[in-house]
Design a protein that fits this description.
Radius of gyration: 15 Å
Order of helices and strands: EEEHEHHEEEEEEHEH
Cofactor: Zn(2+)
Helix content: 10-25%
Distance between the termini: 39 Å
Protein name: MBL fold metallo-hydrolase
Number of domains: 2
CATH superfamily of the largest domain: Ribonuclease Z/Hydroxyacylglutathione hydrolase-like
Largest sheet: 6 strands, mixed
Number of strands: 11
CATH topology of the largest domain: Metallo-beta-lactamase, Chain A
CATH class of the largest domain: Alpha Beta
Strand order of the largest sheet: 1-2-3-4-5-6
EC number: 3.-.-.-
Keywords: Hydrolase, Metal-binding, Zinc
Shape: globular
GO molecular function: hydrolase activity; metal ion binding
Number of helices: 5
Length: about 190
């Protein structure tokens, strides 16, 4: 089961997905809301935190969640505050009941990862792509439009038209033809 524990939060935050199963994982922690109480409200036994990237809106609650549940955080770059363990490009990561492949997808931020499970037909896209072909900002530090386009292309080549769900860093998740939204984002990101 995948639940966005940031749903309904009015403050500036990313989505934060609690994925329950064999290995209960929080994908991003969000910020500016009480993530700890929202996890406890679900009676979840958290095993780990996995980060798509370390922008403040995605990791604002990181230390509070780590402290409350005694868990560690995995991300691309252990030089980033709060990241305890590195996830390499193409590494397999257990999230919930499925194995996901990590895809290093810079362009929005250098340490950006997406997570794709072929067996679950699910993509955690972070801030790479969003609903309706939107894509991550490249005007922030470490942003690079050309690298973002390459990263979107990489994800587009990995997933296919059978992709069932795309969980994104901001806005609603996409459960109707998410592959189309990835393709749209690739085209839109190329426009200057």
């Amino acid at each position: 089961m995948i639940t966005n524990i940031a749903r309904g939060v009015q403050a500036f935050t990313s989505n934060a997905f609690l994925v329950e199963g064999d290995r209960t994982v929080l994908v991003d922690t969000g910020s500016n809301f009480d993530a700890v109480s929202r996890i406890r409200d679900r009676d979840a036994e958290l095993d780990a935190i996995v980060l798509t990237h370390t922008h403040p809106d995605h990791v604002g609650n990181l230390e509070a969640v780590k402290d409350a549940f005694g868990v560690e955080a995995w991300g691309y770059d252990t030089d980033q505050p709060g990241v305890d363990h590195a996830i390499a490009d193409e590494e397999r990561v257990r999230i919930g009941d499925h194995d996901y492949t990590s895809l290093h997808t810079p362009g929005h931020k250098n340490d950006h990862l997406c997570f794709y499970s072929d067996s679950a037909s699910v993509l955690f896209a972070g801030d790479l792509v969003f609903q309706n072909g939107s894509f991550g900002r490249t005007d922030l530090e470490e942003g690079d439009r050309d690298r973002l386009v390459e990263s979107i292309d990489r994800v587009s080549e990995r997933v296919d038209e059978h992709l069932a769900a795309m969980y994104v860093g901001h806005g609603p998740s996409v459960t109707t033809d998410p592959y189309h939204d990835v393709e749209l984002a690739g085209r839109a990101a190329r426009m200057r």
